[in-house]
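Recall the central idea of this unit: under ordinary conditions, the amino acid sequence of a chain determines the structure it adopts. In this exercise we apply that idea directly, starting from the sequence alone.
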Amino acid sequence: MASQLRWGPTDGSVWLAGGDDTRRLLRGGSWFYDPWDCRSAYRVGSKADYKDGKIGFRVACCF
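Accordingly, the structure predicted from this sequence is:
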């Protein structure tokens, strides 16, 4: 089966160098987003130092 990454390593190794450490991947949605984007499968790229009150881990408890 061919690799889905056209420029990825083909020998089973991983990329260890040449990464972009100025960007991060945000996973999951936010209470602020549309329902489709609130899924745990939602992904979006962002600057590494980006901060926002609508992103992050939140704990909820029902009594």
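The chain has a mean pLDDT of 76.
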